Amino acid sequence: MLAIDVHQLRKEFKVQKNREGLKGALKDLFKREHTEVAAVKDISFQIPQGEICGYIGENGAGKSTTIKMLTGILVPTSGKLVVNGYIPYKDREKFVQGIGVVFGQRSQLWWDIGVIESFRLLRKVYRVSDEDFRRRLDELVETLQLQELLNRPVRKLSLGQRMRCELVAALLHNPSILFLDEPTIGLDIVVKMEIREFLKRLNREQGTTILLTTHDLQDIEALCSRVIMLDDGSIIYDGGLEELKTRWGKGREVQFQFTDPVSLDDVTFMTSGLDVRWSLENEVTAKVWIPREMNVSEVLSKVVGLKDISDIKIFETNTDEIVREIYQSGSADAPRDLSALSSNEAEAGEKEPIKAGTGAGES
Hints:
By secondary structure, the chain is an alpha/beta fold. The chain has 13 helices and 13 strands.
């Protein structure tokens, strides 16, 4: 069964055109001109129950607009939209019983009262029974370690503490779908890891469907098997993250640190017959660029038997770099042809080990 079914979804906004100068400002007072801007352009996708899907894009790509339509906050201009069997903007009261929403830059907790009081108010909003509320609250508080925070006003919480409380607030009524819009924005690495582990456990144990928008690609790598990439309101990629990395990965680099000094001729000779490119870091350190279709073991077997090696490091394609190249090309279907790379470009390779930071922006 599908948790989310979107077909040809479109959202347009009227934007006022401001004329220049004093005369233009006076004209705007009496007769305003508007233009139609499409924030989301006829997108289609389906998310089955129990999937964790990443929804990424640059600033203004339309991510948050999509989430607001999926949660019933905005009414689509056109298209079909079914979430949990409901049309969000039509069946609002029934629909919200089955979804949870966390907006990283907006709070659903009351600022000046204790956290537990916000939870009790939300219990009444969602019409959760006392028994279910106590059982659910105890489970979430223990899992997210919030025992010491329940009687503290929200305004006195750190950002990480508040985000953990926001997750509890979104899950008190046990929704089957969780929408997360930048849930880890501004958090330190320890809190991010705690939230990621919690979300994985929630999905694994309760089958909760999660749609995650973020500009931290490390969230995507840690949680999602599938990613939907949005650019200028249109979907340019919908598929597996590993498939995307395989298709766009520019190869790998292996750094060898030798016991004795080596020359460029020495290391090149060791891999003669292989389509690889060497560069020297210093007299005892050299890097070899290996195309993505070649197995690293082919290179290692040739080098290890001929020279004494004190250290080896393997560098993978950075996910941020892949996403950046896709946006620059405007398509996820046409990766750059590595055979056309110049020697200098190939030797440059990827200079950082695999790690994703803040590559794609928010909408």
